[in-house]
Design brief:
This protein is mostly helical and 157 residues long. The chain has six helices and three strands.
């Protein structure tokens, strides 16, 4: 068994490093997607409604892993622009989030810019590094999703 060298040990705050990377990556995508008048969060919301909608806002918030209040703020802007509408739901208390034709058109336009941002990030960092980053992030997300007390349960597999 190999002993971890000091170079193998984490240095600094993981939260800070992730937040710094997230800010830089978000700025990169926002600069490109912003050319359509959308923020990347709004683009993502349009994509989710297009793919899974019409659906209740509580379902949309769960899919996007965001709070209801954050979703509500983002929905207000897109509804005001005519990109999304809230229609009557299956019962009197619920509303369905639906994408409009204008929303579909803006999503298509933003998707081209998102793709340009993705390709330029791949070129900047290198496709191998991006693929490795995705793998590490997927593994970390899966590990953190496990119920408390089950750490190492999969080690014997």
């Amino acid at each position: 068994m190999k002993t971890a060298s000091p170079a193998d040990k984490p240095r600094g705050c993981t939260n800070l490093k992730l937040r710094q990377l997230t800010r830089r990556v978000t700025q990169h995508y926002d600069a490109e997607v912003g050319k359509t008048g959308l923020k990347t969060t709004q683009y993502s919301l349009l994509c989710h409604v297009l793919r899974f909608g019409p659906l209740r806002s509580v379902e949309l918030a769960a899919l996007m892993q965001m709070t209801a209040s954050t979703l509500s703020r983002n929905l207000q802007v897109l509804v005001a622009e005519g990109l999304l509408v809230l229609e009557a739901g299956p019962d009197a208390r619920s509303r369905l989030v639906c994408i409009t034709e204008a929303g579909r058109a803006r999503q298509r336009e933003a998707q081209r810019h998102w793709k340009a941002a993705q390709l330029s990030l791949n070129a900047l960092l290198g496709e191998q590094r991006v693929a490795a980053l995705h793998a590490v992030l997927d593994e970390a997300l899966a590990a953190m999703a496990e119920p408390a007390g089950d750490e190492g349960a999969a080690d014997g597999d």
